Amino acid sequence: MAAVPPNRLEVLRTLRYANLDGALATAFGTLVGGTFMVGFIRMLHGADIWYGLLAAIPSLCGVFQVPGAILSRSVSSYKRFVAPGGLIWRLLYVPFILFPLLHWAPNLLLTSIAMLIGVASVSVMMVGPTYNDWLAEMVPVETRGSFFSRRNAIIVFVGAFVGVLGAALLDAFRAAGHEAIGFSSIFALGLVCGGVSWIYFQRMYDLQRPEVVPVRLREGLSQLKGPFAD
Fold first, then answer.
1. How far apart are CA 26 and CA 200, in angstroms?
2. How far apart are CA 77 and CA 134, in angstroms?
3. Which H or E element spans position 218?
């Protein structure tokens, strides 16, 4: 846990690591979800409802950003609060490497996938706002716009590039008659990206909140009533 503020070199190095973490985490999310998950459902001949359900789960879990942001105020270290959610998010996708190779009933397999995606999504949504807070604290106010614009551009480019690369790889496996192995390989490649992003995350310099505010979850959630009551 960092006891002193980082110097300029440490800040610049941390922001570079944060961009690498973000880019590789995006590659991870692209390869284990999105169009590849749709293709996997199609391979399993899943019912149409699974397409909508597995696509909707991450968005529905976005509401957990609110209690996560509230609870984070009671923890002095940004990194200590963010790390568990980020690690759980990655680890819960490890079984996806084996799923294409299992001969389970499609509904049982898809139910297992939905449960893992749900817990993984809750974990990462809980810490997402705090991660962005952490970065914002390191970037001077006058350069935040340019930093986050550049960061978003990197993330979008990497997501698109990895998506095309993964699709080409999957097509090659399909042409050889090994579609299941292709999906397993795609998911494994995604986990490799997620693992490397975690390494860069661990290298980021921690910050301490200037003021820790002890908050009970029930009290924090009650604060949500304000905007709706107006």
1. 13
2. 9
3. helix 217-222
